[in-house]
C-alpha cells in the first residue's frame, strides 16, 4: 500500500515542477514578442516599456513677445545704448533702423531685439531709464503641447532611422537594400525638418522678441508759453516760409525758361506766316 502511494506523490511533484518551470519561458517569449512589435512600429523598446510621465510635471514652455515705445532726447544715441544693454544681458539685435533728423522729420530709431526670457524684466527696466516710456506691451504664448509633440515625433523617427540602418546593414538582397534605403531617406528628411522646427521653437522660448521704437518730441513741437517764445516761433515760421518760397522759385526757373523759349518760337512762327 505504501509503494503505490509514494509513487503517486512523486509523479504529482514532478508534474507541478514541470508546470512551474515552463512559466518563465512563456513570460520571456511574450516579452520578446512585445519588444519585436515595438521595433516594427518604429518605437524604441525602452520608450514602449517606460511608464508614462505623470500629468502636470512637464515644464511650461512659453514664447514671449512685446513692444516698447520710448521718447528720448537723442533717439539715435538711445538706440545704440539699447544695443549695448541687450548684448550685456546675453541677447542679440535682429533688426536696427536709424533715421536722422531732416527738414521734415525728427530723428528716430527702431530695433527688434532678442532678450533672454529669464532676464526680460530687468533688461526692460534698464531700457526704460533711457527716456520717457509711452507704452509697454508684453504677451506670452504657451507652446508646451507643441514642444512635447515635436519631441515625441523626433524620438519615434530617430528609433525608426536606427532600425532602418540596421536593416540596410543586414540586407540579404538588392531589392531589400533599395527599399530600405528609400524608406531611410524619407524618414531622415522628415526627421531633419522636425529637428529644425524644434530648434526654432526652442530659440523662441529661450529669447523673448521685443520691438522698440524710440522717438523725440523735437525742440519746436511744444506750443509757445510766453511772448518771447511766440516771437521765436514766428521767426522760425517766417524763415521756414522764405526757405520754402526760395525752393519753389528755384524749381520754377527751369519751367519759366522753357515757357519763354516756347513763346519765342511761337512768336517767330507767327511773324513768318504773316509776312508770307
TrEMBL record:
Compositional bias of kind Low complexity: 20-34
Q: Where in the numbering of this chain does the DUF4349 domain appear?
A: 60-265
- Which InterPro entries does the record associate with it? DUF4349
Q: Which UniProt keywords apply?
A: Membrane, Signal, Transmembrane, Transmembrane helix
Q: Where are the transmembrane segments?
A: 252-273
Q: Where is the composition biased (Basic and acidic residues)?
A: 89-104
Keyword Membrane in record: yes
Top-rank taxon: Bacteria
What is the annotated signal peptide range for this record?
A: 1-17
Residues covered by region (Disordered): 20-62, 89-110
Q: What is this protein called?
A: DUF4349 domain-containing protein
